[in-house]
Amino acid sequence: MADVAVVREQALLFSTPPLGACLAVTIFDPVTKVAGVLNGMLPESSIDLERAARRPGMFLDTGLADLLGRAGELNAQLSRLIVCVAGGARILDETRYFNIGHRNFEVLAYLLERAGLSIAAQDVGGLTNRAVQLNTSTGEVRLKISGQAKLKTICKP
Prior knowledge:
Layout (H helix, E strand, L loop, with lengths): L2 E6 L4 E3 L7 E7 L4 E7 L8 H6 L5 H14 L8 E6 L12 H15 L4 E6 L5 E6 L5 E5 L6 E4 L2
Parallel strand pairs: 5-6
Antiparallel strand pairs: 1-4, 2-7, 3-4, 3-5, 7-8, 8-9
């Protein structure tokens, strides 16, 4: 939780805990086989710059920058990245008063657009928890949705 992981040409299954209002952002470069995941909790690091310096993945702005930076160091190219997003639910907030999940998604969409990236697939919002699985060999993204036995594939490059 609140972390970033990036690998190149490694056969792994990255898995997040149930996301709630958090967002999971996966990236995959099909040419270099660079794959990564960000599990961001909050939209903007300006609320705690010290914590953001220690744990950039906690915030979507610093986490996305870290994710893309690490991917670039492994020779991924932004123009080839397949981006998938899941999470941003309204867990325990049926009044929509806080709606951190929605705010997380708004900020992420803005950051991706600013970076010149678009979302290839998404499963966001609603009232249910999701856990994300990223197959780092293929870029396939599957979701374990609370209350459902079968995994849902949202991205299969």
